[in-house]
Specification:
Length: 390
């Protein structure tokens, strides 16, 4: 099995990193891996779902697109079904704001295939992968709680899909590409349908929305739609609650207030969860001094309630800030962050050394990743997925 998985593991790792950075859509990676797209979304196959743009001007265009789409017929992409149904009992209201919501037939088939996969025997959900950094085989197995959450969410998505107008899957003419994965390219079909019909596209994949704009498709996210409905007094103002719900569900890149971030971390008992994921995102560190100030109350509590996780939280902060630092200065910059946090916490010399070791190890790992320079055309061709079902 090692001989089968190891050669493609590095390629898969690179593609995952591109998805996490908002460079390629999750749907493409799902197609490469030969997995249902809705399942990949629900299982967070690449970690957090990159749903929001960090460009204020682009978000305002999405708000304008959402407002123009009200009471019109629109096309929906599966990521919007997955994310909008995270809000309890909200789908009927969202659905009712449009004249009709259209989806291509292959998207419905993908949802059905995802439901079948997620409802299988829980013991069959695991898979074996190869960790190219550690050089070892790794078994991945969702917990009973995760499995129950996956089933609950696909049930919500299925219920929402029953309200859709299903149409034939369009031939690819506008988004034609040499990378053809056949019936696994379900993430492209809504793009093609929207482009061919001139209808707005509702999607919660930031890359899909960017691709849609190239042929002139107007497109918007769930958050943009919620803002419009609230501004136009069509629904109660629950925006901050909705943002917190998304953040707890590993949707990025949201803007959280310091109090919201602290509350999420507290509710997670200072473990590495959604709050640490938020801190580990580059967008959080767009304004370095503000980001650091927002982090410090969390580090205070981690130091007090979960001191063994202090180095892991520091690693998240280093990774998040790394996109704003030249790779040749990682060690220096991370050491400065470490000293700032250590001074604030007034840690003992031993703890300070442990934190510096963690920061240095993170710098080494990030420099190794940037230095390897895996070719960006690694996605060309179906080279497998570096994992095997169990």
């Amino acid at each position: 099995m090692r001989a089968q998985l190891a050669p493609v593991a590095k390629q898969t790792q690179y593609l995952v990193q591109l998805v996490q950075r908002g460079r390629i859509p999750l749907g493409l990676l799902a197609a490469v891996r030969g997995r249902p797209y809705a399942q990949a979304l629900i299982e967070r196959a690449c970690g957090p779902l990159v749903a929001l743009t960090t460009d204020p001007a682009r978000f305002e265009r999405e708000v304008a697109a959402a407002r123009a789409a009200l009471r019109q017929t629109i096309v929906v992409e599966t990521s919007a079904l997955v994310i909008s149904t995270l809000l309890p009992n909200r789908w009927p209201t969202l659905y009712g704001t449009f004249a009709d919501i259209v989806a291509p037939r292959d998207a419905l088939h993908d949802i059905q295939a995802s439901a079948a996969e997620l409802r299988r025997d829980p013991d069959s959900h695991g898979y074996v992968g190869f960790d190219p950094d550690a050089g070892t085989l790794v078994r991945h197995q969702p917990s009973e709680h995760q499995t129950a959450m996956f089933i609950q969410q696909i049930t919500e998505v299925e219920a929402a899909a029953r309200h859709l107008k299903i149409v034939d899957t369009p031939d690819r003419t506008i988004f034609a590409d040499s990378l053809d994965y056949g019936d696994r390219d379900v993430w492209i079909s809504p793009l093609e349908l929207a482009a061919q019909t001139g209808r707005p596209l509702w999607s919660d994949d930031v890359v899909v929305r960017e691709l849609a704009m190239e042929p002139g498709v107007t497109t918007f996210s769930t958050l943009a739609l919620l803002q419009v409905l609230i501004e136009d007094s069509l629904i109660p103002d629950t925006l901050r609650t909705d943002v917190a719900t998304f953040a707890r569900s590993y949707i990025v890149d949201l803007t959280l207030t310091p109090d919201e971030l602290l509350e999420i971390a507290r509710d997670e008992d200072w473990q590495l969860g959604a709050a640490a994921t938020h801190i580990g995102r580059a967008a959080f560190w767009d304004h370095y001094e503000n980001a650091l100030a927002d982090c410090l109350p969390i580090f205070d509590n981690v130091h007090l309630h979960a001191p063994k996780l202090l180095a892991a939280w520091l690693t998240a902060a280093c990774i998040g800030s790394s996109n704003h630092i030249e790779d040749t200065t990682f060690h220096h910059a991370f050491a400065a962050v470490t000293d700032t946090i250590a001074d604030h916490l007034r840690v003992d010399p031993t703890t300070r050394d442990v934190l510096h070791d963690a920061a240095a190890a993170t710098a080494d790992a990030l420099q190794c990743q940037s230095g390897e320079g895996v070719a960006e055309n690694a996605a060309d061709g179906d080279g497998g997925d570096g994992e095997a079902g169990g």
